[in-house]
Write a structure and sequence with these properties.
With 237 residues, the protein is mainly beta. It contains 3 helices and 18 strands. A 6-stranded antiparallel sheet has the order 16-15-14-13-17-18, with no helix packed on it. It has a 5-stranded antiparallel sheet with strand order 3-2-5-6-7, with no helix packed on it. It has a 5-stranded antiparallel sheet with strand order 10-9-8-11-12, with no helix packed on it. A hairpin with an 8-residue loop joins strand 13 and strand 14. It is globular and about 50 Å long.
Length: 237
């Protein structure tokens, strides 16, 4: 959202109110396919918009981090990621990448009928997961079947993106995990140019291992520039 005092309120859905973009804003303010809210609503009602492979007709449907928004009529697909300023960006992706998404595991438990289950950051409940999956790991989910096809363990040396806090949108490798029982565990992350920063463990979203991301990344590659570096870059261009 860019201007004005009011904004479309997202409907209740898989993402939190403050961590999502309603489809109306994606169509009207970001992609410029609609000029007014009414036009954006018409595009949705004509079943042109899919989120994670499912048609969504509600213009207020909340699309959040890692969601795949596709428009089959124009042949475009986007993944919602953060830039280094912590703002949502629609990162354009190719066909093979729109078939899966990464989901952070929030909980692992066994139901009353003895079925093992994981719940993910986007409200999914997936039955019979790999027994090695733990909380904070990230599962690679096939959008057609809803099954987990791969997963990344939360451990030292893995590549991660920060999804909350001051460092949202930055990408780096996990260097150190400080445990604080009864308080917030702190993780130290180092980015590709050697800058280290610390954040809470809940803010970490693992995206790959051995410096190889499972999803394609925006052009900044998650490296935050200082104000001076930003100015120098602008002057060069």
């Amino acid at each position: 959202k860019m201007d004005g005092a009011f904004a479309p309120r997202p409907s209740a859905g898989p993402h939190k109110l403050r961590e999502c973009l309603p489809l109306i804003l994606i169509l009207r303010n970001r992609l410029k396919y609609a000029i007014t809210g009414q036009e954006a609503k018409m595009i949705c009602m004509q079943k042109h918009v899919q989120v994670d492979g499912k048609v969504r007709t509600d213009p207020g449907f909340p699309a959040g981090f890692m969601d795949v928004v596709s428009l089959p009529a124009s042949g475009e697909s986007f993944r919602l990621l953060y830039d280094t300023k912590g703002r949502f960006i629609l990162h354009s992706i190719f066909e093979e990448e729109q078939k899966f998404k990464l989901c952070r595991v929030n909980d692992v438990y066994v139901t009353s009928k003895k079925v093992p289950v994981v719940t993910t950051h986007d409200g999914k409940t997936i039955r019979f997961p790999d027994p090695l999956i733990r909380v904070n790991d990230v599962a690679k989910v096939d959008l057609d079947t809803g099954k987990i096809i791969d997963f990344i363990k939360f451990e030292l040396g893995t590549m991660c993106m920060i999804t909350k806090g001051r460092n949202r949108g930055r990408i780096g490798t996990i260097q150190h995990i400080e445990r604080h029982p009864g308080s917030f565990d702190i993780v130290t992350v180092k980015d590709a140019v050697g800058n280290a920063f610390a954040t809470r463990l809940q803010n970490i979203f693992v995206i790959g291992k051995d410096n190889e991301s499972m999803v394609s990344l925006p052009k900044q590659k998650g490296i935050k520039l200082s104000i001076i570096e930003e100015r120098a870059k602008k002057l060069r261009s």
